[in-house]
Amino acid sequence: MARILITGASRGIGRATAVALGGKGHEVIATARDVSMLDDIPAAQKLQLDVTDQASVDAALARAGRVDVLLSNAGSTVRAPLETIPLDAVRDLFELNCFGALRVAQGVLPQMRERGSGQIIFMSSIQGRFVIPLIGTYGAAKQALEAFAETIAIEAGHFGVSVHVLQPPAVTSGGAERAQVYLDDDNPYRPLLDKLGPFRAAPVSVEQVADAVAATIDAGSEAAFRIPIGETAKSILAARKAAPDDALFLAAPLAW
Ligand SMILES: NC(=O)c1ccc[n+]([C@@H]2O[C@H](COP(=O)([O-])OP(=O)(O)OC[C@H]3O[C@@H](n4cnc5c(N)ncnc54)[C@H](OP(=O)(O)O)[C@@H]3O)[C@@H](O)[C@H]2O)c1
Questions:
Q1: Checking CA distances to 205, which of 126, 146, 177, 199 falls within 20 to 30 Å?
Q2: How far is the CA of 244 from the centre of ligand 1 (A)?
Q3: What is the tens place of the pLDDT at every residue in 176-216?
Q4: What phi-psi label fits residue 202: left (phi over 0), alpha (psi between -120 and 50 degrees) or beta?
């Protein structure tokens, strides 16, 4: 059984995965910005960890000790056209989804490299491979995250560390509904918001994502690098793969 550190375990996918992995007998180190949010999770260890704060990450990892698997899950999204999104909102999103994820990975990599084993699983999204208008900042952050992940996979793979990115479509976590929306009624891009419904249709459950995490841990280094979750993710990513790279993917269905 593995010792698994999960970031963003207070709610949503992180919480469901902490519960599911604990139920399978793994030693879960559940972490959250507000550790009291973990009170009702039956984890082996519960630690305060804010991925945007180096001192918080250092302190949590010092207390965690051995980490066999890092589930880098903490993240959020935002909705706004790139013409009008406040740049601070873009910075904050990258700070959490990219730099935060890299910061925690940097924290566990030395011990994994020295042991010659370990697994890092990054929670990406189908948007790690294409962009959806009004959510492009998130897509950009997830694509940067996948570039970090692919680089670490090659660099640290040499030392026995395996790296994977999970790509869920819409998830029933409530995370998307918590997105900060920068779209006043008079914003000229507002009508585009009505086009996004299909991307929230047929969401996968947090339990399905937790199952995918568990299967990735079971498969270890044999697991694929990119792992789409559910049929919606598989079909849209297959369509993206088949589409020409020199044209705009999704431009026609999202014309307005
Ligand atoms: N929901 C979707 O449709 C969907 C689809 C594809 C991929 N994903 C990805 O799945 C992951 C989890 O999302 P979710 O849907 O479960 O969202 P969620 O329910 O909003 O959970 C996000 C988690 O991240 C934590 N977090 C936020 N800022 C943090 C920070 N600075 N340090 C540590 N933790 C922090 C939150 O903690 P607090 O309680 O402290 O805010 C919360 O535990 C994200 O990476 C997201 O991009 C989600």
A1: 146
A2: 32
A3: 889 999 999 899 999 888 888 888 888 999 999 999 999 99
A4: left
Using an 8 Å Cβ cutoff, are 152 and 107 in contact? no
Q: What pLDDT does residue 202 have? A: 86
Identify the structural domains of the chain with CATH numbers, from first to last: 3-254 (3.40.50.720)
Ligand 1 site-directed mutation target among 10, 15, 57, 121, most atoms within 8 Å of CB: 10
State how far the alpha carbon of 63 is from the alpha carbons of 31, 59, 208, 211, in Å.
Answer: 11, 6, 30, 27
Give the number of the atom of ligand 1 that is nearest the alpha carbon of residue 176: 1
CA–CA separation, 16 and 212 (whole Å):
12
**Atom of ligand 1 at shortest range from CA of 13:** 16
CA torsion 24-26-29-35 (nearest 10°) is 20
100-137 core/surface letters (b: 16 or more CB in 10 A; e: else)? bbbbbbebbbebbbeeeebbbbbbbbbbbbbbbbbbbb
CA 158 to ligand 1 centroid distance, Å: 30
User: Does the annotation count 138 as an active-site position?
Assistant: yes
Q: Residue 171: CB within 6 Å of ligand 1? A: yes
Q: Name which residue sits closest to atom 39 of ligand 1, judged by CA.
A: 10
Query: Considering 46, 72, 125, 138, which one is annotated as catalytic?
Result: 138
Is the pLDDT at 32 greater than 90, yes or no? yes
Task: Name the DSSP class of 129.
Answer: S
